[in-house]
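REQUEST
  id: r-88c1
  op: predict_structure
  target: Wax synthase domain-containing protein
  payload:
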Amino acid sequence: MHPIVYLFAEIAITVFVIGFTPPNSLFRLVGLLAVAFCVFQCIPLCMPYMIRTPWAALVGGYSVTYAYHYLDVALLSRWSFEQGAPVSGLTKPSTDVKGSQAISAPSGRNPIIQQLLFGLKITFSWRFIDTPYQIKNVPPVIAKNRKDFLLRTFVTIAISYVVLDIISSSNDSAIASKFLGLDKVPFLTRLNQISAEELVIRAFTVLAAGIGLNCVQGGIYHVFALLAVSSGISEPSEWPPFYGSVRAAYSLRAFWNIFWHQTNARKFSSISHYTVHNVLMLPRGTTIARYLRVVAAFMSSGIMHLLDDLSSGVSVHDSGAMRFFVAQALGMIIEDSITRVYGSLPKRAKLSRLLERVVGFIWVALFLTWSVPAYMYPMMWRGNLGLNDSTIPFSFFGSNAERLQALACLAAAGLVSLSGIRLMGV
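RESPONSE
  id: r-88c1
  status: 200
  body:
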């Protein structure tokens, strides 16, 4: 069976369980087993069916992400249709978001339709936008007017497509096989072997990987935003930017908590809080509990991305997912310790605000240049062999026929945007 079928099955299970079962129902545990079955059926099928590693990783990644989402909303936070809210006490309403304490379907509908709509809303709410449970650090909506939103979203999709095309077309399999193999992942233990050329290629590869991930993840998000808003299903206010401002990325903590997308923040928060306070029974407010939550959150992310690696043909042995994400937790703990010591210094011994930010950006850049290859290099195996492993289906740098197909993809997005503008009369 096609892996996408298993992905849709996970979504359907989540919708049914959240909409139609009480928070303490045993069906929710049964649902977890069903979701886990779908994930482990989906993962080995991703590469055979999807062919390219980015496509396989997307299907496998969403499959694993929905399993995490199910674990959170069905069993840890325990969302309830009757209450219109999570009832476990693990998830608290945000003090930054105004609104009622409940999420409910519009009144006057058939009860079954109301439950279905509630299940759909919670299933597709990863950041819980415009609800009392919206996660922290969601960027503000840039374009609130429907016309401006649709035009801006189309431009973002087009830019993402072109940038991904440029990155893919710039790949050189000879350079990749020489400098981007698994043997090049270690850095500190090879300092006397690393040439200036390798260092530059490593830095630019990490930068290109970051831009590429931004374009892939943000591009897909904006495609769904374009479809939802142009059809009238959603309002622009429900689709804030996927990423925060890069200007906030002057520390590892700010990089991960503010700049990077927060679609998995609620899942990892629920898992880490439950592990530290419900399983380990550690009291809240202690330093050790706070840092164990950080480690638990990043380990959860590591497991998620390890399974994602498996779906794209990377073996457990070669995957650097756990190594990378645990390194981020340790880096954040080290960063906090240094920041605490620096904060205790007298004012005259401190740098200016501008220099602090500059030092912070340099620190983040160096840390990511050191750590990202452990995660990224194993996933580049097809590209290193010279195979077509582009995320986009058609390239502007290919044949004339392929250029026309690439142009047709963007033209389709443009037509959706224009039809949405005309449909809503704006």
